[in-house]
Write a structure and sequence with these properties.
6 helices, 83% helix
Length: 136
Amino acid sequence: MIDYLKKLFLIKLRFAASGLVATGIDYILYMVLVTHFLEPVPANVVSYSLAVVANFMMQKRFVFKLQGSASGAFFWSIAASAVGLLISTGIIYWLNLYPFFAERQYLTKILATGLIFFYNFYTKRFIFERRLFEVD
């Protein structure tokens, strides 16, 4: 059991590291867009979408063992990320209804990102490795 938890922790750590880079891309781009160019919801769509592509490339290389074709994994990864985008955008929209969060976009984006971390991990793990909870 200890080995299982250790391996699962290490997989999540690599996932978190790739996610941290992608989140950095998402967060920085979101803040630039929302500060200078777009409203929060369209800014989130643009920044999240670009971060998804970067994250797929990192996960394919450093996190998961691909079981199947890269094009199939990319398609399903994008589909799962589209659902994640809907969840994230819904959270951004909902939080922006409150003046506290509308005035603090940095906090709004952090909350939205944190809330979908586990959704992203388990859907991507299933897409890449065809499993949810097992470890090697």
